[in-house]
Predict the 3D structure of the following.
Amino acid sequence: MIERDHIDALARLLGDKGVVTRPEDMEAYETGARYDRGRAAAVLRPASTAEVSAAVSYCVRNGIALIPQSGNTGLVSGSTPDNFGSEVVLSLDRLTRRFEIGLDNRSIRVDAGFRLSDLNRKLEEHDLFFPIDLGADPRLGGMIATNTGGSRFLKYGDVRRNTLGLKVVLADETGTVLDLDCDLRKNNTGVDWKQIFIGTSGAFGIVTECVLNLERLPKQTATAFLVPASGAHVLPLLNAVEERLGAYLSAFEGMSKNAIAAAFAHVPSLKNPFQSGNIPDYVILAEISRTWPPREGEQSLDAVLEGVLAEIWEMEEAPLADAFIGPPHETWALRHALSEGVKHLGKLIAFDLSFRRGDIMAYCDHMKAEMPQKFPGVTVCDFGHIGDGGVHFNLVVAKDSPLLTDPAFEQRLREWVFTVAVEQYQGSFSAEHAIGRRNQAYYDLYTPEKLKEMAAGLKTFTSPGKLGSVRFG
C-alpha cells in the first residue's frame, strides 16, 4: 500500500477521473487476459502526455513503482501488478485525443490509448489500415511496447517495421518527455532512438503518442485451406506458393488438427469444409490480396489461387495433398476461433515461440512424439504463423487431471518446452509477447551477460525510476 497523501497528491495532478482506488473499480486493471491476477495500490488514468509526465515525475520522486498498462491483453504477466499491493498501475485508456491522418504521407499521428479496432474503423473510410492483424484487441502503446506481429506479418511486417515516430515519457524525476515524433520513412541522422522503446515491455519509457505507417486496405482477397502431404512438406509448400504468388501472398497460417477440433467444439456455427467433416492432421490457411478493385478482363484472385494450386499439384513429389478454396470470412472465422476454442478445453499452458522457418514443423513434430512419454495427459494444440516462423505452442491439461495437483508440474513442463526450443532448435522463447514476469527467468537464463549489462545500462539511463515488471539487469 502507499500512503493516502500520495493518492491525494496524484488526484490533484490528474483530476477525479484520473485516479482509481476502489477495489471493485480496479479489478479489471488487476486481472490479466489469461493467467495473472495482482493487487494494485491505485490505478492512474492520465488523459494527456503532460499528465503522464506529471504522474511519473511524482511517482519517481517518491519511490512509487509504476506498471504501465495498455489494453491489458498480454499473456506473459507484463501489464498487471504483483500481489503485494505496493505498485501503481498507469493505464493508457484515456489517451485517445490525438488522431491526425496524413493522407499524402500515408501515416497517422495518434495517441497511444487507441485500440487497434477503433483505429482501423476510423481509417476504413480512407481505404487505409494499420496492417497488424491480431486475435486480441490491444491498445497501440502496448503493441509498440511488445512489438506485436500477427497473422499478416509475412506481407506487412511487425510493429517495429510500421512505426515512424514516438513520444515517450521517461521514468526520471522530471518525467522527461522525449519527442521522437518523426513522420519520415528515411532518416539516418544518427541513432534511431525510437527502436529502444519498441519491444522492451515499457521498461525504458511510456509511449504516449505514435506515428504509424498505414497501408492500402485490400479490395480483393482470396483464401484457401491447404492440406500438406506431411509435416515435412509444409516448408516446400510455402516455398512453392511464395515462388508463384510473390507479393500477393499475405498470410500462411498453420493449424493443427487438435486446435481446429477445439474451435469447432467451442463455436458450433463454424463451417467445416473438410471432406466428410474429417479434420486433416495439419492445415494451412493461405491468403492472397490486391489493393485495387477488380478490373475489367483481370483474372479473379480465386482463379489465380486455383491456378497456382493446380501447378503445385503437378509438381514432382507434390507437397500438397488437398485444398479447399472458400470465402475469406469463413476461413478467417475458423482461424480466429482457435485461441478461445483451445482455452476452453481445460487448463491452458501457452507458449509463444519462434524458429527458423525450416525448423518450426520439425520442432512441433518432435514435441508431439515426445510428449506422451515425457508428460502423458498433456495435449498439444499448436497453431501459428508458419510464414514467419512463429508458433503458438499451446498445451492443454484436463481440468480433473492429477497432473494439476503436482505444484512442480507446470514448471517442469515449461522448462522442457523452452530448453528444447532454445537449446536444441536455436529458437526464441518469446516470439511476439515480449518478456513479462512469466518469462523473466528465461530471459535471465538465455540472455548473455554482456547483453543484460547493456540492457540494464539503457534502463538506468532512460528511466532510472521503478518502471515496468521486467528486470533487464
Q: What stands out?
A: The first strand starts at residue 19 and ends at 20. The mean pLDDT is 94. Residues 106 and 214 are 5 Å apart (CA to CA). The first helix runs from residue 4 to 14.
